[in-house]
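Obj.: predict assembly geometry.
Materials: sequence records (below).
Method: joint structure prediction, all chains together.
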Amino acid sequence: MRNWSSRIVPTIPTITAFERSLDRGQGLARDMPVRWALEEVGQPYDVRLVSFSAMKEATHRALHPFGQIPTYEEGDLALFESGAIVFHIAEHNAGLLPNDAIARACAITWMFAALSTVEPVIVQREVSMYLEHDKSWHEERLLIVEDRIRSRLDDLSARLGNGEWLDRAFSAGDLLMVQVLRRLSRSGILDDYPNLIAYVARGEARPAFKRAFDAQLAVFTGKSASQLE
Ligand code: GTB
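Observations (raw structure tokens):
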């Protein structure tokens, strides 16, 4: 029986990431938003790299029921789901969620919007590109999926307008939204949305993003982040 009254004892968290980068160090895997959130709040962290086979073993599945990365361990606490991990980091540290209750609820809403309204259509495109490219209906389906993405981007772009961030200050909502939009970087689809391109660039220009990016790139190149400079 779980002890629901337990408290989180702060320790240096350990996250998991792919031992071999699938995206060749582009920082698109889901350890990236977790690293970025930890860097934003100035929380040092350890990384345990896992192989594909290790991810499917019982030891890792005890942390992540679906045998994936990332996971997050902090004392007795073990989390999976990048959004939940970023939320946990944002809840327990200053810098990623406003203190004002209404502004905080709005920022959390953008976290959900990134992961449950914008990202799914982008993932549909990736599935179509990687798993359905040899099907006779691939081109037709791709057009439909890209239309759906554009519909989401039209609305997001209209809402962002000339704003720097989705609400007043940078938040965990922006962190997740920027990370989700980065998945479109090579698609050309963002080209029609100069304000979204500038928004992603603003996110990527943050020192915390750069530190997180370099750390995940170092796993791919085998060079430490300081050797990359
Ligand atoms: N909903 C979960 C979360 O947000 O944490 C999804 C976790 C997830 O998809 N993890 C992937 C994984 O472990 C790694 S990020 N896959 C192994 C498996 O399922 O067996 C996947 C990823 C890689 C590359 C890109 N990219 O290039 O855009 C995006 C996402």
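Conclusions so far: The CA atoms of residues 168 and 192 lie 24 Å apart.
To do: check interface contacts against the pulldown list.
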